[in-house]
């Protein structure tokens, strides 16, 4: 009954089976194995355009290394105040870019609004030697509040970025959950809307440790081999990263897993929506819920063995995953309902 994160899960059986198959026999190192060599073609089919893909082991590496390839040391990366690259990566983007500055942009529901971005960029000091120079915009999809950019919202941000000659990066740690929510193709959610490079997440959705940096603009990928090697993410036994990514997108496994996680999140939200002493902080559009919950309810739920993070003094975060059981969701809601009225009376 652990709703702390989608990182708490076991590895999906399909991914584990793919790893076992990849473990048979010898294979050339550093991405020269057949599985790794086939990923560009397979991901190009998935995204309906020619892409260049680089497997890495962690989401932080995917984000930081992607930004290092598109941002000079004197550059600025515009991101939301709550974005993972700004709050949760221990300065990795600044480190790997050699000193680029993260410039935060506020916005409701952890989204960058195009109008806010335009206003910030107009005052950015482009061309002035005393200022960091605008280089990139980074969007989180889904966001740190569990919300999802619509295709139109993404396109509008990309349009503003293009006006100012910025490259657009998308942090897609929960990209699968966003695509399921949007009901669109991966292409429509990315390059067709104007995204240049995507951090394609798999670990939160059933992989053991596998992410990918996907370049939709081949020119941006020319030096990425060196960034990845210098950053320590050129795995010698790359086949074990590639096997995970290959299995992940085969037969739409990634979308099936995300669809289940999203359904469980919606079921949780529906169960808590009318609960006395509980308020949903944001729309539930992916697999995360932020719930303002009476402290006594939260304490009793923790005592019952349910696990979740306290996000701040009055809000908890609940995250569902590809293998969240429906009975666990029902049990959580029923327990919260039992404790709701006494908590309010006290």
Can you put this structure into words, describing what you see?
Its cofactor is pyridoxal 5'-phosphate. Belongs to the threonine aldolase family. This protein is α/β, with parallel strands linked by helices. It contains 14 helices and eleven strands. The chain has a seven-stranded mixed sheet with strand order 1-7-6-5-4-2-3, sandwiched between helices. The chain has a four-stranded antiparallel sheet with strand order 8-9-11-10. A hairpin with a 7-residue loop joins strand 8 and strand 9. The longest helix has 21 residues. It is globular. The mean pLDDT is 96.
Would you identify the CATH architecture of the largest domain? Answer: 3-Layer(aba) Sandwich
Number of helices: 14
- The value of Rg in angstroms is 21 Å
Helix fraction?
Answer: 40-55%
By CATH, the superfamily of the largest domain comes out as Type I PLP-dependent aspartate aminotransferase-like (Major domain)
The CATH class designation of the largest domain is: Alpha Beta
Mean pLDDT level: 96
Shape descriptor: globular
Catalytic activity: L-allo-threonine = acetaldehyde + glycine; L-threonine = acetaldehyde + glycine
Keywords: Lyase, Pyridoxal phosphate
Cofactor: pyridoxal 5'-phosphate
Organism: uncultured Synechococcales cyanobacterium
């Amino acid at each position: 009954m652990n709703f702390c994160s989608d990182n708490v899960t076991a590895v999906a059986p399909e991914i584990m089976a793919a790893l076992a198959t990849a473990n048979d026999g010898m294979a050339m190192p550093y991405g020269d194995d057949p599985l790794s060599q086939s990923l560009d073609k397979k991901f190009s089919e998935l995204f309906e355009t020619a892409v260049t893909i680089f497997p890495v082991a962690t989401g932080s590496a995917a984000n930081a290394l992607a930004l290092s390839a598109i941002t000079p040391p004197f550059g600025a990366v515009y991101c939301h105040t709550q974005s993972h690259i700004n709050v949760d990566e221990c300065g990795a983007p600044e480190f790997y870019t050699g000193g680029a500055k993260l410039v935060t942009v506020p916005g409701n529901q952890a989204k960058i609004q195009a109008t806010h971005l335009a206003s910030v960029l107009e005052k950015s000091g482009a061309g002035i030697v005393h200022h960091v120079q605008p280089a990139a915009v980074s969007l989180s999809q889904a966001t740190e509040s569990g919300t999802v950019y619509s295709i139109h919202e993404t396109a509008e941000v990309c349009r503003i970025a293009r006006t100012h000659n910025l490259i657009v990066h998308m942090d897609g740690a929960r990209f699968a959950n966003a695509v399921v929510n949007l009901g669109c193709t991966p292409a429509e959610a990315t390059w067709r809307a104007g995204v240049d490079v995507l951090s394609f997440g798999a670990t939160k959705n059933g992989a053991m440790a596998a992410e990918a940096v996907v370049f939709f603009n081949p020119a941006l990928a020319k030096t990425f081999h060196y960034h990845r090697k210098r950053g320590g993410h050129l795995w010698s036994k790359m086949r074990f990263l590639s096997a995970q990514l290959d299995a992940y997108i085969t037969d739409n496994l990634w979308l099936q897993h995300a669809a289940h996680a999203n359904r469980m999140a919606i079921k949780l939200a529906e169960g808590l929506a009318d609960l006395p002493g509980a308020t949903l902080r944001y729309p539930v559009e992916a697999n995360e819920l932020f719930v303002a919950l009476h402290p006594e309810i939260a304490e009793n739920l923790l005592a019952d063995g349910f696990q979740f993070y306290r996000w701040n003094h009055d809000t908890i975060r609940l995250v569902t995953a590809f293998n969240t059981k429906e009975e666990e969701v029902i049990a959580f809601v029923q327990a919260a309902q039992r404790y709701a009225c006494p908590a309010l009376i006290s």
